[in-house]
C-alpha cells in the first residue's frame, strides 16, 4: 500500500509538472503566433505600399517618356532620320557608333564609348558635367557597336598608360588611328 501511495503521489506530481510545462509551451506558442501575425500584417502593409509606389513610378515614367518622345519628335526629326540612314547602311540591330571624347579638366584622359545613333554625344556627356567643355575627338559608324567597343578598348589598353573604366590615358593621335582601324574591321 505504501508503494501504491508513493507511486500515486509521484504520478500526481509528474502530472502537475507536465501540465505546467504544457501551459507554458502553449503561452509561448500563442505569443509566437501573435508575433508572426504582426510580422505578417506589417509585411503585407509594406508590400501593398511597395506595389503602390511601383505603380506610381511606372505611371510617372510613362508620362516622362511620352513627354520626351513628343519633344524629341518636334526638335530633331531631320537629325534622327539622317542618322538612321547612315546606321542602316552599316548593319542592323547592333549597328551604332563608337566615339572618343576628351575633357580639358582631365588632360591626357580620353573616354571611349559607344552609342546607338551618335547624335549629340557631347551634349549628352555635358549634362552630367558642370563646365560643359567636353570635345568629341572621333566618331566612327560600325555594324556592331558592342564588339567594336570591346575591340578598341583592347587595342587602346595595350598602348595606354592607365585605364579607369572607359577612360584611357593616351594621346588623341593614337586614339584616332585605333578608331580608323576598328572602323574598317566592323
Structure description:
The protein is an alpha+beta fold and 186 residues long. The protein folds into 2 domains: 1-75; 91-185, no CATH class. Helix content is 66%, strand content 15%. It has helices at 2-75, 77-90, 121-126, 145-159, 172-185, and strands spanning 96-102, 109-115, 135-142, 163-164, 167-169. The chain has a 5-stranded antiparallel beta sheet with strand order 3-1-2-5-4, with helices on both faces. Helix 4 runs antiparallel to helix 5. 17% of the residues are buried.
Number of helices: 5
* Structural domains: how many: 2
Order of helix and strand elements from N to C terminus: HHEEHEHEEH
End-to-end distance, in Å? 105 Å
Q: Oligomeric state of the chains?
A: single chain
What's the arrangement of strands in the largest beta sheet? 3-1-2-5-4
- Could you tell me the number of beta strands? 5
Itemize the secondary structure elements and their pairings.
Elements: H1 2-75, H2 77-90, E1 96-102, E2 109-115, H3 121-126, E3 135-142, H4 145-159, E4 163-164, E5 167-169, H5 172-185
Antiparallel strand pairs: 1-2, 1-3, 2-5, 4-5
Amino acid at each position: 500500500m505504501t508503494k501504491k501511495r508513493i507511486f500515486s503521489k509521484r504520478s500526481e506530481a509528474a502530472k502537475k509538472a507536465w501540465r505546467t510545462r504544457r501551459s507554458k509551451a502553449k503561452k509561448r506558442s500563442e505569443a509566437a503566433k501573435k508575433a508572426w501575425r504582426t510580422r505578417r500584417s506589417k509585411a503585407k502593409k509594406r508590400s501593398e505600399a511597395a506595389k503602390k509606389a511601383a505603380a506610381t513610378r511606372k505611371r510617372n515614367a510613362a508620362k516622362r517618356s511620352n513627354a520626351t518622345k513628343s519633344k524629341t519628335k518636334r526638335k530633331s526629326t531631320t537629325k534622327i532620320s539622317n542618322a538612321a540612314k547612315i546606321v542602316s547602311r552599316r548593319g542592323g540591330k547592333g549597328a551604332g557608333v563608337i566615339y572618343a571624347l576628351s575633357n580639358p579638366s582631365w588632360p591626357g584622359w580620353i573616354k571611349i564609348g559607344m552609342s546607338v545613333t551618335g547624335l549629340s554625344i557631347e551634349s549628352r556627356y555635358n549634362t552630367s558635367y558642370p563646365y560643359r567643355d567636353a570635345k568629341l575627338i572621333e566618331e566612327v559608324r560600325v555594324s556592331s557597336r558592342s564588339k567594336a567597343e570591346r575591340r578598341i578598348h583592347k587595342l587602346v589598353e595595350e598602348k595606354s598608360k592607365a585605364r579607369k573604366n572607359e577612360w584611357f590615358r593616351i594621346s588623341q593621335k593614337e586614339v584616332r588611328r585605333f578608331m580608323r582601324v576598328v572602323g574598317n574591321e566592323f
